[in-house]
Specification:
The structure holds 2 protein chains of 2 kinds.
Chain A (H helix, E strand, L loop, with lengths): L1 H23 L19 E3 L6 E8 L11 E4 L9 E6 L10 E7 L11 E8 L4 E7 L10 E7 L5 E6 L11 E7 L9 E11 L5 E6 L5 E8 L2 E3 L4 E5 L5 E6 L5 E4 L5 E3 L4 E4 L3 E9 L2 E2 L3 E9 L13 E5 L33 E4 L5 E7 L4 E5 L14 E8 L8 E8 L7 E8 H4 L8 E6 L12 E7 L7 E9 L2
Chain B lengths: L1 H5 L5 H15 L5 H4 L6 E5 L13 E2 L18 E3 L6 E4 L2 E11 L2 E5 L1 E3 L5 E2 L2 E8 L6 E9 L12 E7 L6 E7 L9 E6 L10 E8 L2 E6 L2 E6 L1 H7 L18 E9 L15 E11 L1
Parallel strand pairs in B: 3-6
Antiparallel strand pairs in B: 1-18, 2-7, 4-5, 5-6, 5-18, 7-17, 8-17, 9-14, 9-18, 10-11, 10-17, 11-12, 12-13, 14-15, 15-16
The chains are: A mainly beta, B mainly beta.
Protein name (chain B): Glycoside hydrolase family 16 protein
Family (chain B): Belongs to the glycosyl hydrolase 16 family.
InterPro entries (chain B): Beta-glucanase-like, Glycosyl_Hydrlase_16
Chain lengths: 489, 291
C-alpha cells in the first residue's frame, strides 16, 4: 500500500507540474499517467450485514498462535439498530480451539478513500463489563502502514457508542483494513464472555477536539547515546478530547508522523521512526502530524562511539550463553522479571537483540547491552515458559559489567544462581563482587568477571539453572551488562 | 447537569417546528411586534482591536475570591482568585483573552479574570451578542452574562440575572442559557441546553446572544434560536412552595450590565482533575449590543 500511495503522490505532483507547464507553455496534454486514482468513500462497515467487505467477512489472526476462529458470527436476535449485530464469543484461555479471538475485516475492493472521515465508530455491549484487549483499523493482515489501535476498551452491559479517532485521515486514500479486534479473558480472570458490535462505520463527527499527537507518551526524554547506536521512538500515540469531554489516546503508526532532528550531524531518523546516532553532540528529536506538533521529545547527547565490552574469544562449543552478541543465546523467560519489591528498570522482554541499548562494534555489527537502572535486585530467568538450563558441563560464569556511576567503598553487586526454579526443589548460591573488584576496569569502563561455579556455595543442581540474580541493595543503581555466559575451562 | 437536562424542553428540530408554528400563529397576533425583538441598531461594541489592557471606559473588574463581597467562592465554592493582571486578562491579536491559570495566588490555587461593564455600560432591553471561543477541560466554567444593576438595593436573585451563555469544559458540545429571579434561581433557574451536532465550542468561535424585549428573552447560538423565556414561562416554572411571596415575578424590566469570566471549580462544574490542562483561555472576538 505504501508503494501505491507514494506513486499517487508522485502522480499528483506530476499533475501539478503538468498544469504549470500547461499554464505557462500550453505545449503538452495531460498523459494517462497523471490521472489521480480515487477509491470508494463508503463509510459503513457493518449495519445489519457487512458492507463492502470480503466474502470471508472476518479474517482471523493465526490459529497456530492461539486465535480461535469459531467464536465469530452475526446475531440476528440482538441489535442496537436494525435487526442484527456482530457477535463475538471470547473463549477461555485453555480452549483447545484457541485461547483468544481476534482478526480483521477487509475491504472487498482495492481499498477505500477515508479522507472525509475523522473517526471509526461503533456501538457495543458485553455479557459482562469486560475489557476488549484491542480494537482499531488500518490492518488487513498484509499491510498495516496506518494502523490505529485502542487498548482495553471498557464494555458495558448496555449499548454504548465507542469512538476511535483517526490521526490524519488525509493519509487514508486507499485503506483496506476496515476493522480489527483482539479479545481474551485477562480482564475477567479467565471467564469467557460475549460481546456484540453494531453500526460499525467511519464517520465525520466534527466533535473530536484538542488533538495531541504524542511520542514517548508525551514526555520529554533526555538520554545519553553513542555514535552508531540507535534508539526507537516509542509510545507513539494520538490523544484527543471526545465529545463526552473525556480524553482518549490511541496507538498510532509512526507513518502518520514526520520526525524532525535539530541536528542531522548528530542524529538522523529513519522512516520507521528509529533514531540513529551518527556524530558527537546534542540533538533533539521532535515529531508532528501535519502541522500539529507532537507532545514529547528525545534529547540525545553523543560523546563518541560506544565503549564496547571486550569481545568474548572462547569457543562456542564450550559456552552456554544467556546474553551475548558473540554466541547463540539460550531462550530466557526474561531479562528483568519486574518482581514485587524490585525497583529495577531495564531488561524488559526476552529478546537479546531488542534490549535497552543497541550499539555497534567498529565493524558495524550490532552490540546489544542491558542497562539496569534503579537497581536493587533483578534476575535473568530461564524457567516457566522456557526450559531450565543445564550448565553441569560448565566451570565458570562470565559477565561484563560497566558501572555508570562512582563506585563507593561500601558498594557491591552480589551475583546469585538459583536452580530448580518453578519445579519445587531449589538450590541457591551467591558470590559477592566488592568495590575493589568493581573498580578493576578496562579502558572502556568494563569489569570482566570470571567466577568459578564452585564459588557459588549452596548452588547444587547445575543441570537445572533457573535464575541469575544481580543484587546491589541500592548501593549501585545504574549498570550496563553484557556477555553473560557460562563456560568450561 | 441533571437539572439542566430535565429542563430541556425541546430538541432543536422540535424548536424549528415550534418556530414555524409560532410564526404562523403570531402572524395573526396584533402584539407580535412587541413580543419578538428584531434589533439591528448598534449601540455599543468592543471589537478588541487594540492590543493590551481592555478599554477602561467600557470594562472594569471583579477582583479576588468573593470574600470582599461577602460571598467567598463567589457563592458557588469556586476555586479561582480573579485578577486584572495581563496574565489573566489582555487584548491580543484582536481578541480579548481571559486566561485561567493553575498557580498559587493569595491563598487560591487558580487565577482567572471577570470583566464587567458595571457603572460603565448598563442597559435595559436589546440584543446582546458576543463571538467567543471557549476553553476546555473538567472544572472550567466560563460565562457571558448579565446582572441587574440594583443588586445593592434588591439582593440577588431579586435583581435578576440573564445568563446568555454558560458552558462546562467537560461538555465541549453543550452551552446553556438561563434566567434567574425570585423563585427561579440557582438549581431552579429557567434554563435550557443547546448542543452542537457536528462541532464543538472549544475548537472555533461561535456567536452567543439574546434578544431581550419587555416580555421576552430569546436565546440563540450562531443562527439558531433555541430558547424563549417569557413571563408566563417564568410564572409556570417558578417554585412557589417554600419560595418567596413574589415567586415567578418578571424582574427583567430594568438596566443590566455585562459580565464575562472563567470560573474554575465550584458546585456546578466540580474541581479540575489531573487531565485538565492549564492555562485555559476564553477568546472573545467582539461584544456588541443593538437596540
Amino acid at each position: 500500500m505504501m508503494k501505491t500511495i507514494k506513486s499517487i503522490k508522485l502522480k499528483s505532483i506530476c499533475i501539478l507540474g503538468l498544469v504549470l507547464i500547461l499554464a505557462y507553455g500550453c505545449e503538452r496534454d495531460l498523459t494517462d499517467d497523471a490521472v489521480l486514482a480515487t477509491f470508494p468513500t463508503e463509510g459503513d462497515i457493518f449495519t445489519d450485514a457487512p458492507v463492502g467487505l470480503t466474502d470471508q467477512f472476518f479474517r482471523s489472526f493465526d490459529p497456530a498462535a492461539g486465535a480461535n476462529v469459531n467464536g465469530f458470527g452475526v446475531d440476528d436476535g440482538v441489535a442496537y439498530e436494525g435487526t442484527s449485530s456482530i457477535r463475538i464469543d471470547v473463549p477461555v484461555p485453555n480452549d483447545p480451539e484457541g485461547g483468544f479471538i481476534g482478526g480483521v475485516f477487509e475491504d472487498r475492493g482495492d481499498g477505500r478513500d477515508l479522507t472525509g472521515y475523522d473517526a471509526l465508530t461503533f456501538w457495543a455491549k458485553g455479557s459482562t463489563t469486560a475489557l476488549i484487549g484491542t480494537v482499531g483499523f488500518g490492518d488487513n493482515l498484509e499491510e498495516n502502514d496506518y494502523v490505529v489501535t485502542l487498548n482495553d476498551l471498557q464494555l458495558s452491559t448496555d449499548w454504548r457508542k465507542y469512538i476511535i479517532p483517526m490521526p490524519d485521515p488525509s493519509k487514508l486514500t486507499q485503506e483496506k483494513g476496515m476493522f480489527l479486534f483482539s479479545a481474551g479473558t485477562n480482564s475477567t480472570g479467565g471467564m469467557g464472555f460475549t460481546f456484540w458490535i453494531d453500526e460499525l462505520r467511519f464517520e465525520n463527527l466534527g466533535t473530536i477536539g484538542q488533538e495531541r499527537p504524542q511520542i514517548f507518551n508525551g514526555e520529554d526524554i533526555v538520554q545519553e547515546a553513542f555514535i552508531g547506536s540507535s534508539i526507537a521512538i516509542s509510545d507513539i500515540g494520538y490523544k484527543v478530547n471526545l465529545p463526552s469531554g473525556t480524553n482518549q489516546t490511541v496507538n498510532a503508526s509512526s507513518n502518520y508522523f514526520s520526525f524532525i532532528t535539530s541536528d542531522p550531524a548528530v542524529a538522523i531518523i529513519s522512516e520507521e521512526g528509529v533514531v540513529n546516532i551518527v556524530g558527537e553532540g546534542t540533538a533533539t528529536i521532535t515529531a508532528r502530524i501535519g502541522d500539529l506538533p507532537a507532545e514529547g521529545s528525545l534529547e540525545v547527547t553523543a560523546s563518541g562511539p560506544f565503549p564496547n565490552a571486550p569481545v568474548p574469544m572462547r569457543d562456542a562449543a564450550n559456552v552456554v550463553s544467556l546474553f551475548s552478541d558473540a554466541y547463540s543465546n539460550v531462550s530466557v523467560r526474561h531479562y528483568n522479571g519486574f518482581f514485587g519489591g524490585s525497583t529495577t528498570q531495564g531488561g524488559a522482554g526476552s529478546d537479546p537483540n531488542n534490549v535497552d541499548i543497541q550499539a555497534q562494534f567498529s565493524d558495524g555489527t550490532p552490540d546489544n547491552i542491558i542497562n539496569y537502572t534503579s537497581l536493587n535486585f533483578v534476575s535473568i530467568g530461564t524457567y516457566e515458559t522456557v526450559p531450565l538450563v543445564n550448565i553441569s558441563a560448565m566451570t565458570h560464569l562470565h559477565v561484563d559489567i560497566n558501572v555508570r556511576e562512582t563506585v563507593d567503598p561500601s558498594d557491591f553487586i552480589r551475583l546469585s544462581l538459583e536452580s530448580g526454579t518453578g519445579i519445587g526443589s531449589t538450590s541457591f548460591g551467591s558470590f559477592i563482587v566488592n568495590s575493589t573488584a568493581l573498580n578493576n576496569i578496562d579502558a572502556n569502563g568494563w569489569v570482566s568477571l570470571d567466577v568459578p561455579l564452585s564459588s557459588f556455595s549452596g548452588f547444587s543442581d547445575p543441570a537445572n539453572l533457573g535464575q541469575l540474580f544481580f543484587v546491589s541493595d541500592n548501593t549501585i543503581a545504574d549498570i550496563w551488562v553484557d556477555n553473560v555466559y557460562f563456560y568450561n575451562e | 447537569m441533571k437539572n439542566i437536562k430535565s429542563n430541556t424542553l425541546f430538541r432543536v428540530k422540535c424548536l424549528v417546528a415550534l418556530m414555524i408554528f409560532t410564526t404562523m400563529f403570531t402572524n395573526c397576533d396584533p402584539d407580535e411586534t412587541q413580543e419578538v425583538a428584531k434589533l439591528n441598531n448598534l449601540v455599543m461594541q468592543d471589537e478588541f482591536d487594540v492590543d493590551g489592557v481592555p478599554n477602561p471606559s467600557m470594562w472594569t473588574y471583579d477582583i479576588g475570591d468573593g470574600t470582599a463581597e461577602g460571598i467567598p467562592g463567589w457563592g458557588n465554592n469556586e476555586l479561582q482568585y480573579y485578577t486584572a493582571r495581563p496574565e489573566n486578562v489582555n487584548v491580543e491579536n484582536g481578541v480579548l483573552v481571559i486566561t485561567a491559570r493553575e498557580e498559587s495566588f493569595e491563598g487560591a490555587s487558580y487565577t482567572s479574570a471577570r470583566l464587567t461593564t458595571q457603572n460603565l455600560f448598563e442597559r435595559q432591553y436589546g440584543r446582546f451578542e458576543a463571538r467567543i471561543k471557549l476553553p476546555w477541560g473538567k472544572g472550567l466554567w466560563p460565562a457571558f452574562w448579565l446582572l441587574g444593576n440594583d443588586c445593592d438595593q434588591n439582593p440577588w436573585p431579586q435583581c435578576g440575572e440573564i445568563d446568555i451563555m454558560e458552558y462546562l469544559g467537560d461538555s465541549p458540545t453543550i452551552v446553556f442559557g438561563s434566567a434567574h429571579g425570585p423563585g427561579y434561581n440557582a438549581g431552579d433557574a429557567i434554563t435550557k441546553e443547546y448542543e452542537l451536532e457536528n462541532d464543538r465550542f472549544d475548537t472555533g468561535f461561535h456567536v452567543f446572544g439574546i434578544e431581550w424585549s419587555p416580555n421576552r428573552i430569546n436565546y440563540y447560538v450562531d443562527d439558531v434560536l433555541y430558547q424563549s423565556i417569557t413571563p408566563s414561562v417564568v410564572e409556570e416554572e417558578a417554585v412557589v412552595d417554600g419560595g418567596p411571596e413574589n415567586a415567578g415575578e418578571w424582574v427583567f424590566n430594568r438596566p443590566f450590565y455585562i459580565i464575562m469570566n472563567i470560573a474554575v471549580g465550584g458546585n456546578l462544574p466540580g474541581a479540575p482533575n489531573a487531565e485538565t490542562v492549564f492555562p485555559q483561555r476564553m477568546l472573545v472576538d467582539y461584544v456588541r449590543v443593538y437596540n
